[in-house]
Amino acid sequence: MSSDIRRSGSCLCGGVQFSVTGEPLRVGLCHCKDCRKTSGSAYQAFAIWPLEAFETAGIVSTYGGRSFCPTCGGRVTSVGEDEVEVMLGSLDVAPTELEPTYELWTVRREHWLQPLPSAR
Asked: Between β-strands 75-79 and 83-87, what pairing exists: parallel, antiparallel or unpaired?
């Protein structure tokens, strides 16, 4: 894992801050109902890093394994046993170089959204 790249992020109010080091293991989109509800959008864009690449500060609340700021409600991460899922929209700098390589729950993808050409 390259430690040269360090990305930072936060919730809307800045009360929860985090950073990830190195490249993500994978980047994807999810169209499931839960991701729609938690993002307030037609899909959720996320990246997965190894847990050891993740640092965080601030108090979070958690519901269904998803962490969010109790002050502003901004969704930030989902922390697992060995991986952390970071919502791409919570990164401080637009992650244009992090291109999704897969999609989940494509049966729920809106008809007006095109499939990712290179995604599996």
From this structure: antiparallel
Asked if residues 80 and 86 have their Cβ atoms less than 8 Å apart, the reply is: no
Tally Cβ neighbours within 10 Å of residue 22: 16
Instruction: Give the global pTM.
Output: 0.85
pLDDT tens for the chain, 120 residues long, are: 445 899 999 999 999 999 999 999 999 998 888 878 887 788 889 999 999 999 999 999 999 888 999 999 998 899 999 999 999 999 999 878 898 988 877 777 778 878 877 766
* Burial grade of 88 (CB within 10 A; 0-12, 13-18, 19 or more): buried
In this structure, the strands spanning 44-50 and 83-87 are antiparallel
